[in-house]
User: Fold these one by one.
Assistant:
Number 1:
Amino acid sequence: MTKKILILPGDGIGPEIITQAEKILSFFIVKGDLAVELDCGLIGGNAIDETGLPLPEETLKKAKEATAILMGSVGGPKWESIDRPLRPERGLLAIRAELGLFANLRPAFLFPQLAKASTLNEEVVSGLDIMIIRELTGGIYFGNPRGIRKLDDGQREGFNTLVYNENEIKRIAKVAFETASKRQGRLCSVDKANVLEATELWREVVSEVAKDFPEVELQHMYIDNASMQLVRAPKQFDVILTTNMFGDILSDLASMLTGSIGMLPSASLAGDGKGMYEPAHGSAPDIAGQNIANPLATILSLSMLLRYSLREEKFANMLEQAVSQVLTEGLRTKDIHSDGMTYVGTDEMGEAVIKTLSTLLD
Ligand code: IPM
Ligand code: MG
């Protein structure tokens, strides 16, 4: 059966960064004989405009049939005031939940060429290579009850529920231990077990799963300390395992260690091998349509797609090598630009990666 890739450009800078990844995919299909079929669909704000829903039935159907999904980003001020359950972000949360994409892998890897682009000292970040594993379909993002209600005294009260059951913790912990055993063998599980019962259980279950992975060294850390350590001495970390909300925050934090959030890819994986791949950054409506967004997080997400869902290790490596090479050549989008480097737009960056790929394929 032909493998299918569903492309969901989304909103804001989504379409322009996805275009670059799509051009690279087409390049692999035409020049590298990669056997995949491409299709595209609507999600987020543009889907609301067209169909009234952030995740239309048709998109969900295509997503269920696809081997993998490549997504841009969703959301923007235009849709901020509509009913909460119909907002763009709910489309993203719904597709994650519907496809069971519980494991979110966010590698914070510093290309040596960008060591000076980080706001942190070069010695603190050079050689940085962290894998953040974020639980993606549970926790406070999905817990019920949730909402905003009116109290008897007339004031409003907002409420959410942080809930994790043992099975949810076990399956994400397994992914984290397996990942750590293929890397440096060190896993740091991040929680707030001193205050929150849901993460007290998290800590207990992670320690139980650890017994099956004696080769991995497990450490537990509170979220406040972990945030501080990530900025103080980030290279102490190999794999970080954490909850949905803590992972959301820590991955943005870690992205700045790598120079820019525009460099951070992600893979959201289900137990059955299906995956959705998206940059960790948002839709950045303030810079949309100006050809200044960094497409590399999306391009690196495509490389994760090639590796994890298509098992095309050769193309994945080649793509990462091409990204590294354009950085070595000094090409920089606005977010990572510094003196002496060559400023390029979104399009030019995509084209440069393709040009390098053609030389690598020969
Ligand atoms: C992310 C984003 C999303 C999240 C938003 C857009 C719902 O911030 O993927 O990190 O919070 O998961
Ligand atoms: Mg986020």
Note: The mean pLDDT is 96.
Number 2:
Amino acid sequence: MGDGAPLIEVKGLKVHFHTEDGVARAVDGVDFTIAPERTLGVVGESGCGKSVTARAVMGLIEPPGRIEQGEILLHLRDKVVDICRLDPRGREIRDIRGSEIAMIFQEPMTSLNPVFRIGDQIVEAILLHGGMGRSQAHERAIELLDAVGIPMPRQRFESFPHQLSGGMRQRAMIAMAMSCNPRLLIADEPTTALDVTIQAQVIDLMNALRRDFNTAIMFITHDLGVIAGMADDVVVMYSGKIVESAPVREIFHNPKHPYTQGLMNSIPSLAVWGARRLKAIDGVVPSPFAHQQGCRFAPRCSHAMEVCRARSPELLEAAPGHSAACFLHQAAP
Ligand code: SF4
């Protein structure tokens, strides 16, 4: 994916949660790369491990969660850091968060404090990472509010979060995330709670930010349709694993994994334009506590064969740059 050196390389990542009820294998062997200034869409139903993967990249896995295995290599200008080896509360990861990697969430109030003015919160984020005095940071905060499309940014600087609409709060959270010009912005379902029009505006905004700030984006969503207009590359996650990985056009024109095909059939707009029948995928994602043999999608797959229940398919290249973990695209084992 991408041409030059990577920004993030995730290799063999496993994140498990050790609870009284057993071990939940939330992320169970995941590999992907994010190149500078590219957008990676991470797609799958809830419970497939997307958000836990994102939190691992931010160095935010806390007990009972544990990184069991793997590496998350962040390529800085002068060195490579393995985020899995850093203390989640230590100085080094705190410096990386914000200055190199920032995250936005579905619910802006996760990041915004209800009792402080929007502008002050952005100023504090800028000051935290140094390099500017307070009055300079104040002007920079107004510039950022303007850059994310908040009208009358000087007046809006004074607003409290509850005085803004949901879409404006989302923009303010994006402004705060962009305040230190991170090289990677992780967006975890940022448009899910918004209506379709505002959703489209936020996606346009993120595309513009990527262009203007040269930021790479890891965009997490359960809705494959959302990333059609913004991702360069896509990984599809199911039950803690990547089941398909390809450039975005390939995913939409030639989806190979039955799960990806099921996600495609459940996108309302594509069903309308393609005159296809809108159809949800039968069944549910297996519990991360369940230790199922064979392909984890087999109970929901209309193509399941005997081999699928006995062996787990590996993620292998099915076409140049396009990988799928499915025996339909692999020589019989
Ligand atoms: Fe379906 Fe078998 Fe492919 Fe799994 S490996 S997705 S069960 S055909």
Note: Residues 265 and 276 are 7 Å apart (CA to CA).
